Every structure is written in structure tokens, then in C-alpha cells.
Amino acid sequence: MANKNAPMGVVFDLDGTLYLGETVIPGAPGAVADLRARGARLRFVTNNPRKSREAYAAKLTQLGIPAAAEEVLTSSNLMVRYIQRSTPATWGSLLVVGETQLQQELQAAGFELTRQAPAGTVVVSFDTTLTYQVLTQAFLALRGQARFIATNPDVYCPTPEGGLPDAGALIAALKAATGRSPEMIVGKPSDFLASELLQEFGLPADRILVIGDRPETDVVLGRRMGVRSLLVETGANKPARLPRQYLPDARLDSITSLTGYLDRIGWGER
Ligand SMILES: [Mg+2]
């Protein structure tokens, strides 16, 4: 049997797993505190590109789940990393279909942004400020030579009001108009994110766990990392039956059941 006290890493989804909108999921602070007491390294990963790592760390902390900005990964942050990891000069000027947060992070990393086609690269994201003019410039750039990358594949973002069209919907619109698809979508469940997380943890795959409420992003991320995945049933969708590629290692009614699960599999001692 594996050493109970060997280091472990846990990747958390945020919305639907630790909180719902502005409300913490009952038991989530205790479950995360229990993991820290067991010595786990944590990462909080969201496909939402609209806020900074610091803002998510502050939100979690305020909800009773103390977290550091360095433990948070957003799809804006991942986009910057992705462009930096390849040869940055090959991307040219970036035409961003996205909000201030993404634009600022790209600018702070030294990339040149443009509002007009032609562009080196079109970066598509979750953009509640989108105008027809920006969509048209992205269309024209993609009809030309621009490369095409995106932050996250989600087609809608759940909200108490019924949801908002997300980056996946804008990708689909541009795909319909140009016939082109992004060469990379950096957020969950990309191979890029999977390898970033494995590198950051620096742990054997059998000591890492991914936990989230969306099979098509959270479970698939766990599978791509080659680690255990847990599906919680506190999120927006609670599918009764799952296709084989979305099957988690276990389903939990809520994050509250994580402590019992870790005890059952013999991970860590409190
Ligand atoms: Mg979620």
C-alpha cells in the first residue's frame, strides 16, 4: 500500500464545486481545510477568464476557503503562459475578442494588441462587452492569415438568471462564418493545462486528484492528466448517465464527502 503521508496534489474546480455564484457550498471550507491539514498541495482552476488570480483568491478567502493567488489558475492566465511557452514572436499582434482582464494580462506580459484586421492571431474568450465591430474584425482577420486560439470551450456560463453565452459560443459563431477552428483552447480540459498542472505539482500521477462538477471539462482534465477524477453533484448539471469518456473514478453528492473518500483510499493523515 502507498505511503499514507506521501505528498498529494488536488485540483479544484470553483463554481459548482466550492461555491455556487456568490454562495459557498456548505462544508467546502472544512473539506479544503482538511486537505491542507493532510499536507495536500492545492490548485484552484477556473475556465472563467474575466477576473484575476488575485480576485479569485480573495473571493475564496472571503468565503472561508483561504487561498493564495499563486494557487489559482484562470484561462486568461493560462493564455499568457501558452503564448509565452511557444516562441512569442510567431504570434504577431493579438486581436482579442475578450474583456479588460485578458487584454491587461496579455499587455502586461509584453504582447502587442490590435483592434483591427489584419492581425497575427485572433484570441477568442468570454466577452460580455462584445460589439459587432470587434466580431467583424476577428472574422476578417481569420479570413486572412491570422492564427486562431481561445481561452475556454464552455458554450455558456451558468448564472442565477439562466446563463450567459460563453467563449464556446463565440468560437462557434466565428467557425460558422470562416470554417476555421481554434488550433488551441487553453482552458479545461486541454492537454496544455494537463501538462502545466503535472509539472507544477511534480508528483506521481497516482498522488493527484481532480475534483469538479462538469464531466466534459473536469473529468476529462483528470483523464488527460492520467490522475483520479471526482465528480460532485452540486453544480449546474447532474447527469444521470454519463458516456464512457466522461466517467469519473467516483461521484460525490458534495465536496463535503471528500474527507470520507480520502480516508477510504488511504490518502494522508490528519
Ligand atoms: Mg464548475
CATH class descriptor name of the largest domain = Alpha Beta
User: How many separate domains make up the residues?
Assistant: 2
CATH architecture descriptor of the largest domain: 3-Layer(aba) Sandwich
Named once each, the bound ligands are: magnesium ion
Count, helices? 9
Largest sheet: 6 strands, parallel
CATH fold group of the largest domain: Rossmann fold
How would you explain this protein's 3D organization?
- The protein has about 270 residues and is an alpha/beta fold.
- It folds into 2 domains: about 10-45 and about 190-265, HAD superfamily/HAD-like (Rossmann fold), CATH 3.40.50.1000; about 80-180, Rossmann fold.
- It has helices at about 30-35, 55-60, 75-85, 100-110, 130-145, 165-180, 190-200, 215-225, 260-265; strands at about 10-15, 20, 25, 40-45, 70-75, 95, 115, 120-125, 145-150, 155, 165, 185, 210, 230, 250.
- The strands form 4 sheets. The protein has a 6-stranded parallel beta sheet with strand order 5-4-1-13-14-15. It has a 5-stranded parallel beta sheet with strand order 7-6-8-9-12.
- Strand 6, helix 4 and strand 7 (about 115) form a beta-alpha-beta unit.
- The radius of gyration is 19 Å and the shape is elongated.
- The two termini are about 20 Å apart.
- The model has no long low-confidence stretch (mean pLDDT about 95).
- The structure holds magnesium ion (MG).
- Magnesium ion binds next to loops.
